[in-house]
Design a protein that fits this description.
heterodimer; A: alpha+beta; three-stranded parallel sheet; globular; B: alpha+beta; 8 helices
Chain lengths: 317, 219
């Protein structure tokens, strides 16, 4: 690990300003992803701003009937919150499907949104990776791609986003509240938060340098039945090959989002209007423009079958 | 976290890695705020080692330390406090051997910086039991033969103590059928909740027996 200077921030605005004053600085909250990457020298921040003392650890009702989840609410606490379990079960289920209990106890809401990819070529500093070293190329393309993206990828990057929580957040249309180094605040709709890789896969979201996430707002509950079905190589503590988040209403309408298939949680509005017509119709819309390799072609039927399983469950009384 | 594909591609990685390492070494490190690199200049010279103060309690005893900021909670315990009961397995949050209880919650001590724990109360295996007075869960591990080499055992025991507390507090798991009901103390629940602790000797079924025995004993 490279040496770094360290400070404990006292307010969100102070944290954002401190990050902007130190080029290359990182915020640290749970640290479960950042420290792993720092040990491998994939991340080499010269300065860390510890945001654990900012008090952003509460879940509060909003005026429009939703919830505001502080950036530092730990994954365990968000999954276990009685209101989340009752009204946003898809979010509880997604959180509980991710990582281990030890990691969920430490990992935060904002940190989970900002997880870096687990593409093995990103993790191996001997290999070319445009996300790790812009312009160096992508050793994953033409390599072993079983875990990697099937939609929305580019000639520069075929990494996937690893988060389960973010798939549920995408489904729920959350807002990402932030503060910028000048102290101004804004809310980024999650639909505008993540970027596709294009030619700049190292730019993963629309945050500005030094911009700090302070909370995530959940809109008022959707009702319906909530599902998060995750398919992986082990039954626990493994990243998704494919995951399906869905909220299904009694009339068969609803929402669906996918994990494990793209550089960002994957949601296509046209696919949701096809939900009453069944899993194949929805999959055709979700994966329009799909480009697979020999290694990951299995993900296309896996999406269709996982979605069919969800819709079959939803039809049961 | 652990994925069979990592193993499958090892030989290929080595071959490509050999060809590319010279190029990679010539490129500057990339660093940016919050994963949003926006084309800012790469970080300049890496700073020299930096130390910072931290005061915390471990197993009831207060410590004030001046540590290299890079020191993980795990290395603080083992190298600075000489509490070597907590083990370093993978050092990347995959195996759970380093599990300790911080402010009542189990965490991977390898993935946390010591300086981030100002004012914390840390409990390690040394704080749960001693050779003369075993924690009842340690005794249950002995009774049920819940280990072979024993390396993962301190982490398993710290993790299990906290897992049972999590069940008691009604925290659901991936296998909890009804999210709004109190979770059960079943073998399926324990297996899921202990999935962050790897035992390469494969003592899993005896570990579950030991935890079940301990959990079911009269208070």
């Amino acid at each position: 690990m490279k040496a770094f200077t360290y400070q404990r921030a006292r307010t969100p605005a102070e944290a954002a300003a401190a990050a902007a004053q130190h080029p290359g600085a990182r915020f640290i909250a749970g640290g479960t992803n950042l420290l792993d990457l720092m040990k491998l020298e994939i991340e080499t921040p010269p300065h860390l701003v510890d945001v654990n003392g900012l008090g952003l650890d509460k879940i509060e009702p909003t005026q429009d009937g939703g919830l505001r989840v502080g950036a530092l609410v730990r994954n365990t606490d968000l999954a276990a919150d009685a209101r989340v379990r009752r009204d946003y079960a898809v979010l509880s289920r997604a959180l509980l499907a991710g990582a281990s209990a030890q990691l969920r106890n430490k990992a935060t809401t904002a940190g989970n949104l900002l997880q870096r990819t687990r593409c093995p070529y990103f993790y191996d500093t001997n290999l070319a990776c445009n996300k790790r070293k812009p312009g160096s190329g992508c050793a994953a393309i033409g390599g072993f791609t079983r875990q990697l993206a099937i939609v929305g990828h580019s000639e520069a990057c075929i990494a996937t986003h690893p988060s389960d929580m973010a798939v549920a957040m995408q489904l729920l249309d959350v807002g990402v509240e932030t503060v910028r180094p000048d102290g101004s605040a804004r809310t980024i709709p999650i639909a505008d938060f993540y970027r596709l890789p294009g030619g700049t896969p190292h730019i993963e979201n629309t945050l500005a340098p030094g911009e700090l996430i302070t909370a995530v707002t959940l809109p008022k509950p959707l009702g319906g039945k909530h599902y998060y079905h995750k398919v992986r190589d082990r039954s626990s503590y493994a990243f998704a090959l494919v995951s399906v988040a869905a909220v299904v209403q009694p009339d068969g309408s609803g929402r669906v989002a996918l994990g494990g298939v793209a550089h960002r949680p994957w949601r296509v509005p046209a696919a949701e209007s096809a939900m009453p017509r069944g899993a194949q119709a929805v999959t055709d819309q979700l994966l329009a423009g799909v480009r697979v390799t020999n290694d990951n072609a299995f993900k296309v039927p896996l999406v269709q079958r996982t979605l069919a399983s969800v819709l079959a469950d939803a039809r049961k009384a | 976290m652990i994925d069979s594909s990592d193993i499958n591609q090892t030989r290929r990685d080595l071959l490509i890695g050999g060809a590319l390492s010279a190029t990679a070494a010539a490129l500057p490190p990339m660093a940016s705020a919050q994963g949003t690199d926006t084309g800012q200049a790469p970080a300049t010279a890496t700073p020299a080692p930096v130390t910072a103060k931290v005061a915390l309690r471990v197993n009831g005893q207060r410590y004030e330390l001046d540590l290299d900021t890079r020191t993980t909670l795990l290395d603080m315990l083992r190298e600075h406090l000489r509490l070597t009961g907590t083990k370093k397995g993978c050092d990347q949050g995959q195996c759970g051997a380093c599990t300790v209880i911080v402010d009542g919650r189990r965490i991977n001590s390898c993935l946390s910086l010591a300086v981030m724990h100002e004012g914390a109360e840390v409990t390690t295996i040394e704080g749960l039991g001693t050779p003369e007075k075993l924690h009842p869960l340690q005794a249950a591990f002995v009774k049920h033969d819940g280990y072979q080499c024993g390396y993962c055992t301190p982490g398993q025991i710290c993790s299990a103590v906290a897992a049972l507390d999590e069940i008691g507090r009604g925290i659901p798991s991936h296998v909890t059928a009804d999210l709004t009901a109190k979770p059960l103390l079943s073998a399926a629940e324990l297996r899921e909740r202990m999935s962050g602790n790897i035992c390469r000797c494969g003592a899993y079924s005896n570990i579950i027996d030991a935890i079940t025995d301990f959990a079911g004993r009269p208070a």
